[in-house]
């Protein structure tokens, strides 16, 4: 592993979408000794001062397929060795086809850049609820997916292979800090999904895993990223409500068991060395802000 680490020392890393996950990732990378420069993009001018204070080179970079990229901003931003793409699909203005169009635009910018290693943060939301364990080969084409748009976006970035090395990370539900599962269901009655397993990942582990992959060597592979333990929704909801004194939801046994999916993280764990900080969603760290 030491040889792989030496290959990535002092590389320039650009994080496209330096937000809820990207910003703490940037700070983690700056403190790791593996990069000489971290660049972060945002669509909010107000965040640029925050970036500067943290030592991140900030770029105001909207991703509008209609308007295209401003070359005076995008070219220096993509002038890096590693590009991490962390643009949540929900930021795509809810216009059908917008997210995949964004990723095609990003892919073209990368083709014009010197960047050779790409990490795309995707989602395990691509898997259908088939009441079985979901593994990476289950979804390769949009028509196989619960979220065809997201798979189309993945494939737009994967098309950079083999000239670039592209790792696609399908993240389970990102939680931690102010993202508290009980907050979204407090006080609800007669929920019928209490018995199905959760697929979550804490933000600290998501950032730690991306850093580990950059250090240990980016590969042309797709990986599910999920906490190793999968308690039930009722356990997670009740526990997180109790932590903050919220009214817990109630549950009832449905006439028919709702469909679910259990995300397998085996491929990642067999490929990379990483010790989870929060392997159990029942022990995630939260802060009510």
Automatic annotation (TrEMBL):
Question: What name is this protein filed under?
Answer: Nucleoside-diphosphate-sugar epimerase
Q: What is the lineage of its organism?
A: Bacteria, Pseudomonadati, Bacteroidota, Cytophagia, Cytophagales
The residues forming the signal peptide are none
Kindly give the Gene3D superfamilies that the UniProt entry links to this protein.
NAD(P)-binding Rossmann-like Domain
Q: Which InterPro entries match?
A: NAD(P)-bd_dom (IPR016040), NAD(P)-bd_dom_sf (IPR036291), NAD(P)-dependent_oxidoreduct (IPR051783)
Give the CC-aspect GO terms.
Answer: cytoplasm
Query: What one GO molecular function would you report for this record?
Result: aldehyde dehydrogenase (NAD+) activity
Domain NAD(P)-binding: where?
Answer: 19-215
Source superkingdom: Bacteria
């Amino acid at each position: 592993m030491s040889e792989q680490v030496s290959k990535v020392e002092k590389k320039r890393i650009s994080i496209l979408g330096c937000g809820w996950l990207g910003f703490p990732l940037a700070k983690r990378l700056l403190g790791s000794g593996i990069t000489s420069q971290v660049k972060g993009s945002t669509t909010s001018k107000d965040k640029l001062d925050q970036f500067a204070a943290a030592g991140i080179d900030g770029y105001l970079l909207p991703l509008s397929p209609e308007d295209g990229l401003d070359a005076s901003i995008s070219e220096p931003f993509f002038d890096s060795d590693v590009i991490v793409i962390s643009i949540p699909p929900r930021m795509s203005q809810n216009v059908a086809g917008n997210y995949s169009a964004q990723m095609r635009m990003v892919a073209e910018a990368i083709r014009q850049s010197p960047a050779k290693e790409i990490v795309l943060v995707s989602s395990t939301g691509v898997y259908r609820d088939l009441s079985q364990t979901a593994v990476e080969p289950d979804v390769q084409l949009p028509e196989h997916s619960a979220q065809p748009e997201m798979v189309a976006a993945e494939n737009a970035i994967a098309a950079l292979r083999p000239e670039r090395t592209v790792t696609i990370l399908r993240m389970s539900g990102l939680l931690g800090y102010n993202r508290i599962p009980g907050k979204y269901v407090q006080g609800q009655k007669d929920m019928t999904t209490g018995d199905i397993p959760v697929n979550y990942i804490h933000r600290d582990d998501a950032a730690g895993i991306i850093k580990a992959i950059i250090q240990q060597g980016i590969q042309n592979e797709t990986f599910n990223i999920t906490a190793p333990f999968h308690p039930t929704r009722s356990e997670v909801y009740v526990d997180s409500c109790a932590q903050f004194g919220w009214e817990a939801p109630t549950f009832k046994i449905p006439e028919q068991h709702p469909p679910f999916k259990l995300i397998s993280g085996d491929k990642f764990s067999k490929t990379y060395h990483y010790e989870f900080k929060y392997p159990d969603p029942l022990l995630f760290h939260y802060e009510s802000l």
